[in-house]
Write a structure and sequence with these properties.
Radius of gyration: 25 Å
Number of domains: 3
Shape: globular
Strand content: 15-25%
Number of strands: 28
Largest sheet: 6 strands, mixed
Helix content: 25-40%
Number of helices: 19
CATH class of the largest domain: Alpha Beta
CATH architecture of the largest domain: Alpha-Beta Complex
Strand order of the largest sheet: 4-3-2-1-5-6
Distance between the termini: 50 Å
């Protein structure tokens, strides 16, 4: 059976310079001084098909977020803190300049780098209204202007892959918890109340959620790439090649959905009565241009599917719980296998590479016979590679794990009933004291989020700092959000909720997020711990106020490496939480794993205990 994950490098730094030269030649031909190359595709999904990997094709950078701005004398590659190490390894820095974003805003950078009176081209199908409006505001008063154009990368990418046409699956109502017709009717009521005649759906996960279908157009993310129009009478027009439908799928979609070919989409937009709802954060600028040309009123508002999709049904929550338990069995088998390999490594009896670890984990996930796909390429970073936040091992970067190092494993599975995402950092032999100290701080952050109660109405930005507090006290931090939303057999990254200082979306029952604080020391090690958590109503307390409060339910049940924990640095309540968590991990999994893994699990979940006479430490 072919493995899901490949270890071939998909880009090389030396490919970038000639492609950059070809792009600059194309710019000169059309009279432009620059061009923006985003990571995004027409659907603004985080993951894109091979035919839409324009940023990676041009620059070599393969991260899931970022963009490039190419000018006559400089080409900036904008990446956030997750990718500062990765971008320097993947691009030719003689020709491409990594830019620390969002600390450096593209408008400020352009004012410094662009020639006077520069005209910057952009593909209006690949940028949202919010993106372009923010950049235009930042350039106010300068002589730099933006101009929509066809995609210049597509002009020079001669061997560009074909668009995906993966199989389309029916997602059973028993797993979705709500029929597609019911979802469409509820959203139509939302449109009617707002006075909107229609909403244009551009996000594949929204479309798949609404129609209770799944696909295979994007690696690791089971979605169908298509556009759709939801009308205020609950009808849906779906723009999809009818050769992709089976009789069963046609019957499932039902008479409330009209199928039209993808090439009919723009013509259909021109006949829509307004107001038409567009999401300013995800709809391509091109859609607004088409509607404005017809004089159609645009109602800028969030995709109507986003919030209902984020609030999982009880059936979806049950599916996620089952998927996480199944996934935990594979993780425990893997960690037991890794413990035996680590013992041999430290005794000089063998070796282990990152690729071997990734391969073994996939084999064990497949053993359930329920794995549909992995939810993203497994991150297995040994030693300094662990400090690359979104590291993807290739045959060129594969590293042998050495005694005394940490191995960071971030992985997940796509199951028909749920999506998992878990990170554990493991000591290979006795760990260095500075790693133990940092790991314990990261663990305290994870526990703080796990134990949290908060009043209704708070957003991720209100909670994010609690996970960082122990690190901040030590002058440390991490350059990514504490958590992202997660879909139910959909994207492992799903909005609109996040645990992030940038997130203003109030958390609501049914939302699922990751809880993943970390710490990264470039050139030495990376630490991250991640559990998935679900928002629910907090149980009342005897002396509590009479106000609605929420709490998190932990979905992930896998031991945390106790060898990396300094018990003296934990408070009594933190130790109690950890021991209770490990007790539940053992009770849930002991009868589901192999005898060898059961023996390892017993030791891995023993209580921490506290040093005799230890006083309560400050929080």
């Amino acid at each position: 059976m072919t493995a899901f994950q490949s270890f071939d490098a998909t880009t090389r730094p030396d490919q970038g310079p000639p492609r950059l030269a070809a792009l600059r030649a194309a710019l000169a031909e059309v009279g432009l001084d620059g061009f923006m190359v985003p990571r995004a595709d027409r659907h603004q999904g985080e993951n894109v098909a091979p035919c839409d990997e324009r940023l990676a094709w041009l620059t070599g950078f393969t991260g899931s977020a970022g963009f490039a701005i190419v000018l006559p004398a400089v080409a900036g590659v904008f990446v956030d803190g997750r990718y500062r190490v990765q971008v320097r390894a993947q691009v030719d820095t003689e020709h491409f300049t990594p830019v620390d974003w969002p600390a450096t805003k593209p408008g400020d950078w352009l004012r410094e780098a662009a020639p006077n009176g520069a005209i910057l081209g952009f593909d209006p199908w690949l940028h949202t209204r919010d993106e372009i409006a923010k950049l235009e505001t930042a350039l106010t008063g300068s002589r730099i202007t933006l101009r929509p154009t066809d995609n210049l990368i597509d002009r020079i990418w001669t061997d560009r892959p074909a668009r995906p046409r993966g199989p389309i699956l029916i997602h059973p109502e028993a797993l979705a918890g709500r029929a597609s017709a019911d979802k469409r009717a509820r959203l139509a009521e939302t449109l009617t109340r707002a006075g909107h005649r229609a909403a244009i759906l551009t996000l594949p996960d929204s479309l798949c959620w609404l129609l209770n279908i799944r696909g295979a157009d994007i690696p690791r993310t089971p979605v169908v790439q298509a556009f759709a129009i939801l009308h205020d009478d609950a009808r849906v027009t779906l723009f999809l090649d009818d050769t992709r439908l089976t009789p069963e799928l046609t019957a499932h979609i039902g008479p409330g959905v009209t199928l039209r070919p993808p090439e009919a989409f723009e013509a259909a937009l021109r006949t829509l009565p307004g107001p038409v709802r567009l999401d300013p954060g995800s709809a391509p600028v091109a859609l607004a241009e088409i509607l404005r040309a017809e004089g159609t009123e645009i109602a800028w508002a969030e995709d109507p599917c986003c919030l209902p999709k984020a609030r999982k049904t009880e059936a979806e929550l049950d599916g996620m719980r089952a998927a996480h338990l199944r996934d935990a069995v594979a993780m425990v088998e893997f960690l037991a296998w890794l413990a035996a390999r680590a013992e041999d490594i430290c005794a000089g009896r063998g070796a282990l590479t990152e690729i071997e670890a990734v391969t073994q984990l996939e084999i064990l996930r497949r053993a359930s016979n329920s794995l549909h796909d992995i939810s993203f390429d497994t991150i297995a970073g040994a030693g300094p590679n662990g400090a690359i936040v979104h590291y993807r091992v290739t045959r060129d970067t594969d590293r042998t794990v050495a005694p005394g190092e940490l191995l960071l494993i971030d992985s997940g599975g796509q199951y028909l009933d749920g999506t998992t995402d878990i990170t554990r950092t493991i000591a290979i032999g006795p760990p260095p004291p500075e790693a133990v100290a940092a790991f314990t701080r990261v663990l305290r952050g994870l526990i703080a989020i796990s134990r949290l109660r908060w009043p209704k109405g708070l957003a991720g930005r209100d909670l994010d700092a609690l996970a960082r507090y122990p690190l901040w006290l030590a002058g440390q931090d991490y350059d990514h959000g504490t958590g992202h939303g997660v879909g139910a057999f959909l994207g492992v990254h799903e909005g609109p909720q996040r645990l992030s200082r940038a997130s203003e979306v109030p958390l609501q029952p049914g939302m699922i997020l990751s809880n993943e604080p970390g710490y990264y020391r470039e050139g030495a090690f990376g630490i991250r711990l991640e559990n998935l958590i679900a928002v629910g109503d907090a149980p009342p307390l005897p002396d509590g106020d009479d106000r609605p409060m929420f709490a998190f339910e932990t979905l992930t049940w896998v031991p945390i490496d106790r060898r990396l924990i300094d018990p003296a640095a934990l408070t009594h309540d933190e130790t109690h939480w950890l021991d209770a968590y490990h007790r539940e991990v053992h009770d849930k999994l002991a009868t589901l794993v192999s005898p060898q893994a059961r023996r390892w699990l017993k030791g891995a979940t023993d209580p921490m205990g506290r040093p005799k006479g230890q006083e309560e430490t400050a929080p």
